[in-house]
Amino acid sequence: EFVHSRIGDYAGIRNSTHRLTMNVENNVACELFDMIDDPSELMNMVDEQNEKERVQDLSEQLRIHSGD
User: Fold this and answer.
1) What is the pLDDT of residue 28?
2) Radius of gyration (C-alpha) of the chain in whole angstroms
3) Confidence of residue 68 (pLDDT cuts 50, 70, 90)
4) For the residues of 1-67, what is the DSSP string, one character each?
5) What residues contact residue 15 under an 8 Å CB cut-off, 6+ apart?
6) In this model, does residue 58 exceed pLDDT 70?
């Protein structure tokens, strides 16, 4: 189950463990946070190599839910 939102040029999606934000103008993910281990959203993991698959999966879900 996902929750999604959009503010201006940015769209977000959240599942039970992570939140991803994407710039919809250029289709680039700019934030990924682990909502369990980092609920204050202090460590952006979007560029971490071990999170690439999660970024891709959540980005695809965001595109599906936003109708793009």
Assistant:
1) 95
2) 11
3) low
4) --EEEEETTEEEEE-SSEEEEEETTTTEEEEEEETTT-TT-----TT-GGGHHHHHHHHHHHHHHHT
5) 1, 2, 58, 61
6) yes
Taking the CB of residue 25, how many other CB atoms lie within 10 A of it? 9
Q: Work out the angle at residue 21's Cα, subtended by the Cα atoms of residues 16 and 26, and round it to the nearest 5 degrees.
A: 145
Amino acid at position 41, single letter: E
How many angstroms separate the CA atoms of 9 and 27, rounded? 10
List C-alpha distances in Å: 59 to 15, 36.
Answer: 12, 19
End-to-end CA distance of the chain: 19
Q: Report CA-CA distances (Å) from 35 to 5, 9, 14, 45, 65.
A: 16, 23, 9, 11, 20
pTM value is 0.90
